[in-house]
Amino acid sequence: MQQQAEPGDGAVFGFLTAIESPQHGLFGGYLVVDGLGRPLEFHCTAPVKVSRAQQILYGPTLHGHLHGQQIGAALLAESKASPAVVLTDHDAMLHVRPHTKLPVALVRPLDGTEAAAGFTVGTARVIPHASEAADDVALCERLAALALSVDLQEPFDRIRAAIEEAQRH
Amino acid sequence: MMDKPASQIRSLRADELAIAPAAVLPWNDLRIARPPALRLPVAGTGPAVIRVELGLPRPKLTSYRFAPPAAAAAAPAPAAARGGRRVEASAADAPPQPAAVRRTRIAPPRDIVKLSERFFYLLQPDLETMLHTGKLEFPRQPFPFQLDGMAFLMPRHAAVLADEMGLGKSMQAISSIRLLVRSGEARRVLVVCPKGLVSNWARELADWAPELVVAVIEGDQPRRRWQWSLEDVPVKLANYEVLVRDRDLVAELGLSFDLVVLDEAQRIKNRSSQTNQAVRSLDRRRSWALTGTPIENSADDLVGLFEFVAPGHLSDRMAPKAMGAAVGDHILRRTKDKVLKDMPPRLNRDERIELTAEQRETYRRAEEEGVLRLADMGREATIQHVFELVLRLKQICNFDTATGESAKLDCLQAELEEVQASGRKALVFSQWVETLGRLEGAFGKFGALQYHGGMSTTARDEAIRRFKHEKKHSVLLLSYGAGAVGLNLQFSQYVFLFDRWWNPAVEDQAINRAHRIGAAGAVTVTRFLSVDTIEERIDEVLRKKRDLSETILAQAGEPVPSGLTAEDLFALFKLAPPQHRAAA
């Protein structure tokens, strides 16, 4: 078995998500943590609201465009960090991949109906973007090291809490 | 033909008009074969163009960057466990699934208003993850409510941990200190406690934070000067008396602390006391107070406490409800009934004792003579006179001053025989050292040991050690003053209150030496009450009063002092206080 990277060896990890607020629109949040799960950077967007015309004209492409290019790409571009991988719990956020050089993967809770794609790390199922197929093994090792310290789904809770706080502020 | 511009004229062909073609005519009439042209005008402009903006606006971004956590200070390897199994918080040998089901989050306190600072706390990992990744060892797994207590303390610069006695306030404070030192948020910590608890604190620090270097400030002045000056010692431990004595020295050395923790902080409730002034004079960034009784007698106690915790935050002119609202975010108090599922049960029983015939006669005469004397003194009778009479009568309830007989002792002897037979241990409290001496003489067969303020620290520590580790000692006799505060005696299953104290809070402190986290089983508390005596009347008065701190902290009701007032004492003998008698 190949040796796992140790947590806290300098690697950083990104967590990208979006929160829908019925009142304000769509917020994006991006948290960068070290190998022990401690925060290094946090970026968030002001709420994005689309018009009815844009909804109609973009049609089914709106979701991916909004999450991936408008919000996701902007957040990743703002960060100075180079994470080993950017994890997201939003399918639509995978659309950020064409707009960044960083590996991107989807994280899902284990529910007993795991898709064939991806691999299990701790209590989560990780499904890398198709572009990451060649680096699956390395990615798995990196995330396994992180999972020694951090539940891969937990940082998204922090982002949600921070965005809720920002709305109250 | 109408006079219209050519662009507005449209020609129509015959086939468009469904005109039948003419018959073929001679060659000079061929021009007729061409269908006639009709020109009709068409009104209106070209179609309008509506422009729809498709591009989505680039969202506005806000960014925060946090300094990488400081590297943990190099520390010696943890000391060997002092008995008991150490729980390894790290899952190094376990499968890589560190996530605990319960996540204790650190929430920013209300007084942190800057969003970036609030984010700093919200974006931290949960406490369980921090403990796990920090590979922190514990003598036992913290209870969930204790993790909540740590999450409460850690982000706060001003905090009062007011948990009921026995719930592990010192453990919560020590573990929080440990995390703050690890993260670099605290490098110089001072813990101040009563003199009798210094060795207890030193033990607890060794147990709960073995990697932290601790310096106990003690000894002669040159030694203390050197100890105060030590730079690479993250935690210094001093007692209140030393702090008062070295107040000027600390100022002269220019010492400042990232955190000062006061144990049994009710000691500073009197704002004019030297102790209060000494702790307030400390240069510090964070101020934590640990006390099971933040309000012992009146709301002024809390004001005095907050002069250290958050100067200026409270005033004695505030109404109780306003005070409660002001301190709400700074005080955390849990009671055993709230966390009872984590605690063994406490069984209370009042043992009503009939005085022996001789005791009854002695008591009757003393009370009659005493009341007559008070009545004769009239306005000159002071609270001190009443107090002396009460004490004399209480002493007779313990032991007949004439014959030495004691109904209580006879009853207690029978109980202790059962305790010893079952292999258990018992604590017996009294407010008189003389009573403790008499009990020790009577209970030699139980290996009775004493513990009171008249003993040296070494002798007290030795008594605790022997009581804890030697089977032949089934009984520890303690005074309320020395034994009610801070000791961990949770291996004792029985507590006897031979005579009652004036304040239920102090009695609870005594009981909680045994009924606390880590107690092996149920704790039985027996309170002795002599029937038809001053003890019963005092008990009745105290029953009607409830702890003022519960009132203020619950932000409801009027403040009710928890001890006996002067009026209460006079009323015990159906007398009015002198000022009222003068008015009558």
Report on this model:
Chain A is α/β, with parallel strands linked by helices. Chain A has one domain. Helix content of chain A is 30%, strand content 26%. Chain A is built from four helices and seven strands, in the order E-E-E-H-H-E-E-E-E-H-H. Chain A has helices at residues 52-58, 62-78, 136-147, 154-168; strands spanning 12-21, 25-34, 39-45, 86-88, 104-109, 119-121, 124-128. Chain A has a seven-stranded mixed β-sheet, with helices on both faces. Chain A starts with 11 loop residues before the first strand and ends with a helix. Mean pLDDT of chain A is 86; it is low at 1-7. Chain B has 584 residues and is α/β, with parallel strands linked by helices. Chain B folds into three domains: 6-39, no CATH class; 99-342, Rossmann fold (3-Layer(aba) Sandwich); 346-571, Rossmann fold. Helices cover 37% and strands 14% of the residues of chain B. Chain B has helices at residues 115-122, 127-133, 144-153, 169-183, 198-208, 221-229, 240-245, 247-252, 274-280, 299-309, 320-327, 357-377, 383-398, 407-421, 433-442, 457-469, 480-483, 504-511, 534-544, 548-553, 566-571, 578-583; strands at residues 9-12, 38-41, 61-65, 87-88, 137-138, 158-161, 189-193, 214-216, 235-239, 256-262, 283-290, 331-332, 346-353, 426-430, 449-451, 475-479, 494-497, 523-530. In chain B, the strands form four sheets. Chain B has a seven-stranded parallel β-sheet. A six-stranded parallel β-sheet of chain B has the order 13-18-17-14-16-15, with helices on both faces. The radius of gyration of chain B is 40 Å and the shape is elongated. Classes of the chains: A alpha/beta (169), B alpha/beta (584). Strand 3 (39-45) of chain A pairs antiparallel with strand 3 (61-65) of chain B.
